[in-house]
Every structure is written in C-alpha cells, then in structure tokens.
Fold:
Amino acid sequence: MSKLGSEAAELRCLRACDMQKFHLVDAFDAGRIERHIIPPIGARRVKDLTKTDINKVLKDIMAGKTRVSVKTKKLRGKAIV
Structure:
C-alpha cells in the first residue's frame, strides 16, 4: 500500500486482500483507489474531508489529472491509468 492514503481507502484495500477469494473486480478497485483516490487526498483523515474536497478530487479524476504510467512488478509490466 501507499504510504500516503486515506483511512477508508486503505481499509477497503486491506479488506479485499484479506478475503479468501480475491476477485478480479477487487484487484481493479484496489488499483483505482491506489492510483486515483489516494494521491489527491493525501494523508488527510476521512473525518477532515469536506464535500468540497471530494468534489475537487472527482473533478480532477474526470479531467485526467491523476493519469499516470506506472511500472508494475512484472518484468515488462506497465500500468497506464
């Protein structure tokens, strides 16, 4: 997991990883949370977020500001999100 991150996103990823059957959908959700939601929110706590903060994050995601190309663990792995 990322060192930066909101509590809710981290908990969602941890719950998905602890499940006996790790579904492909959960893997996609974990990637989306890790690459799109955690970076703009940063280390702020969930209880400190306002509706304005959430709307700004959603608009940034829709505008493509969180788009990134990341090297994955595979030998020639590359995630373009």
Summary: The first strand starts at residue 69 and ends at 71.
